Amino acid sequence: MSRFRNAMMGLALLTLASLGAAQDGKYPGVGRAATPKEVAKWDIDVRPDFKGLPAGLGSVAKGQEVWESKCAQCHGVFGESNEVFSPLIGGTTAKDIQTGRVANLSRSDYPGRTTLMKVPTVSTLWDYINRAMPWTNPKTLSTEEVYAVTAFMLNLADIVPENYVLSDKNMAEVQARMPNRNGMSTQHAMWPGKEFGVVSKPDTANKICMQDCRPEPKVASLLPDFARNAHGNLAEQTRIVGPQRGADTSRPETKAGTAPSAVTAAAATVSKPENNEAKAVVASLGKYNCTACHGMDKKIVGPGFTEIAKKHAGKVDYLAGKIKAGGGGVWGQIPMPAQVLPEADARKIAEWISKGASK
Amino acid sequence: MSDESIRSGRVQKAPENFLSRTCIKEVFAESKKGRRDFIRNAFAAAAGVAAPVAMAQSNPVPSEGGDSNILNLPEHATGLGQGVATEGYGKPSKFEANLQRRQSPGLTQTTQSSVSFAPLQSLFGIVTPSGLHFERHHQGWWDIDPSKHRFMVNGMVKKNMVFTVDEIMRLPSVSRFHFIECGANTAVEWGNVAVPTVQYTHGMLSCSEFTGVPLITLLELAGADLKNGKFVLAEGGEGSSMTRTIPMSLITSGEVIVAYGQNGEMLRPENGYPLRLVVPGVQGVSWIKYLRRVEVGDKPYGSKDEAIHYMDLQPGGQHRQYSNLQEVKSVVTTPSGGQVLLDKGFYNITGLAWSGKGKIKRVDVSADGGRNWRQARLETPVMSKALSRFNLDWVWDGKPAILQSRAQDEAGHVQPTYQQLRAVRGTRSIYHNNAIQSWLVQENGEVKNVQVS
Prior knowledge:
The complex is a heterodimer of chains A (359) and B (453).
Chain A: H1 2-23, E1 32-33, H2 36-42, E2 57-59, H3 60-75, H4 94-99, H5 115-118, H6 122-132, H7 143-156, E3 165-167, H8 171-175, E4 184-185, E5 219-222, E6 244-246, H9 259-270, H10 276-287, H11 305-311, H12 316-325, H13 343-354
Chain B: H1 3-7, H2 21-48, H3 53-56, H4 68-71, H5 75-78, E1 114-116, E2 135-137, E3 150-155, E4 161-164, H6 165-170, E5 174-181, H7 198-202, E6 205-214, H8 215-221, E7 231-236, E8 243-247, H9 248-252, E9 257-262, E10 265-266, E11 276-278, E12 291-297, H10 304-307, E13 312-313, E14 319-320, E15 329-334, E16 339-341, E17 345-354, E18 360-366, E19 374-375, E20 377-378, E21 388-396, E22 401-409, H11 418-425, E23 438-441, E24 447-452
Parallel strand pairs in B: 3-12
Antiparallel strand pairs in B: 1-2, 3-4, 5-6, 6-9, 7-8, 7-12, 9-10, 9-11, 13-14, 15-17, 17-21, 18-19, 18-22, 20-21, 22-23, 23-24
């Protein structure tokens, strides 16, 4: 009996012990408390109600300085450029600032939609510049620089005056002038939860019909002939065995179909040898951010590598020098800054370009 | 037999001396079977003579009395093949080199903020091979050392917490098949036909088996306020530190997963190695890659991809914000645009169907541009918020045909026509185009992307 009681006591103690563990969570030994320092470093998001916005300020004038040295290469001096990304500034009016609706968005003939035409919340600009800009060095701007760049953009869009100093104290003031602040709706059935509310009926109500469902269809849209090869030779983009082949779009369409030549073209792509040396150089182009401004075959900000290869074939020293020192005026108005990378790697890249910049 | 003995430069013994007795028996058995196949194939070729000339073109009967591919034994039938582990990680056949994920020319200016499309025209079943999974990067991809990656939970929680990848992988896991589709899939086709093949019209779509820990497990560990914390911010660890707002109701349902596994191995770097969020039924941009943090909050976050992009412009000039659901959709993947049918006769029309609201209930296929429809066979398994494969027998008579597929999900929603969709959303929405796709099979066998009136 006493042994039984002891056993019961033991069981009770065990239960207490496991309760203690349960307070620590269901999975003891997994995870730990985050330190305040860790949370502060990572918890950088800023919500539309400005929760998370750090105290600070930045002027339009300071913003222009930062802009010209760190932003203008991609976005243009006035945020208008569409060469690398969609334009940021333009398309908004003084009236939009009053109404909070960008009128040009309702016009189907207005070309393009800039960031300032769309964005309803100034917090979004601050948050994104802070977390993701500049493009090749995200999260390197100081709090003052983020306020300043945001202020400069707002000034370009005539939301704040030239002498404005943006701060955590006046962000709400600016929010009340955002041109598209009233342009959003969450009244739709596309949010997979109940957090926003009421609409659950989908936009469309197609019915299952099986016979004589509609009149004879007519082709209303198809690709024009000149676009036939715009996506490259489709024969090389489809399996070489099976019920179909890819169409040989490198030649005009024939009445008889294009299957036999498709097979030849496809077979040709198989025997292309791997070029490991070129692969290593191409990888280093990413590592040193060259590809932020140079495409393989086409211009982005600077010329494409194969374009350089054509112009400067064989000139290893010249190319290596240009990579290290930068330059301007050869290909366009936007200068290339001097690049920091080991001499040997610069030389490898120069050699690769001088030999044709093949993949 | 070791590799050493082959490389040693001695005169090699006859092959049978390298083989065990059982191996030799096998070889003899195979060769006998091969002989029988040979005879059967010869019969098949003879039967072909009776078929119409057009039907025989893709498998012609040669005048020499037999196909040289049969009559002349190839090298692989008469030589020694390669050894095990020649490739420590096996690759597809060299004859499959045409299957590549590809960029759509002119769509983006940089490769780091861009997309590549999966070659749906050449894939089978419902699983996307990991190396062909579509890509969408916002500031380039990285291959992150998992021993240095951390996952943080903070906000409206009792305890802000940090987890290593080791710890995440210790927790009870689930493995589930789900599709992921970019909200902008088929975006270029809102107004008119713009691209030639299903790779470019629908290729921002993939499906994998994902393995990981339900996010709710981690939120409960941190003591999250599940009642007032209606929204969760998910944040990536790469340059753009992508952020998106996730509905708490979807998380408490247990569906949202912090995943590390994809198709039996770890996630690919391009798909978020070592951690990514899986948000079934929701557009891909919410499936945060390189996931470093979730924050529990009581309001939505209005991140860049919720307040500048990934908003649907409506005809009146208003944007729909927080439009996340991928509605019922399907597409015929073969025959499809840019392909050439080799001949008249029998074909298997095949394609994919999916819905962010659950399982696919049925798929119908039309070969006359939507006048008449036949119900397709749904292949198993049919799973919630995963791709489903459909097939339908079809005999092509050589005349022009317009192929379409129309899916219905378990919620009862039927995939709309372009006319129905445009009547509500116009043509400038960019996102969430789930209209019925049309492929015109021309008399010459070439298939074209078309839209019908």
